[in-house]
Amino acid sequence: MTRRSWLLGWTCITFWMLSCRTELIGLQNDLQQQPRIINGSVARADETRHLVSIRLLRHDNNFGSGHICGGALIAPRKVLTAAHCLYNNQRKRYRRASEFVVVLGTLNRFERRNGTIVSQVSSMAYMHTFSPDSMRDDVGILFLRTGLLSDGVHLTVAPIQLAGQVTPSGRLCQVAGWGRTEQSSLSNILLTANVSTIRLQTCRMIYKSGLLPGMMCAGRLQGGTDSCQGDSGGPLVHEGRLVGVVSWGYGCAEPGLPGVYVDVQYYRQWIEERSGAPSCSLSSSLLILMLCFVVAVGNP
């Protein structure tokens, strides 16, 4: 190849390396913005078999280090999470299914046991009306390449049923995740905390126009216990049914500022109507890199 062709090739490599660095910065920003469990206790395996760890594949070389969000298994190969977990806020676009890996059946996010399932994502679904600014319609679904067998029987993994009706206020619920704790570091062990559903009128008084249709509040008005950074997308459970998905809030466990969750019952029809479809895509930076070298080789 000529000197011009080599320069074109190295320009493409530089562009690709810069895009990778931008991706890493985006991950660091994401980890700073996600919710956490405050004043929680170690979760029991038999009560959290539906809970999954959603990770960025490229950052999970050290098993467990790529964790960004939680989620709930609602069918053998279907995970419910928050739409903002699928969104790359740095690049202002949704991530591709191939960027994720989902881990099921472990309490310690760094441990891979015999019952642990590690799955790539075949496709995903989200509402195109989702807004990262207002958090409107913050609901998303991941479809797994490797999930449960058709009979759904597994020692450490099991789907959870969706709530079929509105959960009344004052009901005790459980929220769980590997998010940041009071010490502001991601938890290695799955933690759970008890929170109560808050009256919709009370929640509207607190968040005013920020509380949109499809949102609900849970926590303790006196503060002290809450979900916060790292638990996003994780399940809010009442009496064995999935009633909410960790979405957003102001601060963590602050008095008078309960956490805001996706109301699963509100979106139930949309959730049940989504089915997985094959997804195959290459990153735009990789495509540009390949195109540049094709041009370089074709122009000696």
From TrEMBL:
Keywords of the record: Disulfide bond, Hydrolase, Protease, Secreted, Serine protease, Signal, Zymogen
N-terminal signal peptide: 1-22
Location(s), subcellular: Secreted, Extracellular space
Main location as per UniProt: secreted
A Pfam family the protein falls into: Trypsin
Single GO molecular function: serine-type endopeptidase activity
Domain spans labelled Peptidase S1: 37-276
Catalytic activity entry: Preferential cleavage: Arg-|-Xaa, Lys-|-Xaa
Alphabetized InterPro entries for the sequence: Peptidase_S1, Peptidase_S1_PA, Peptidase_S1_PA_chymotrypsin, Peptidase_S1A, Trypsin_dom, TRYPSIN_HIS, TRYPSIN_SER
GO biological process terms held by the UniProt record: proteolysis
Enzyme Commission (EC) number: 3.4.21.4
Protein name stated in the entry: trypsin
GN (gene name): LOC108042850
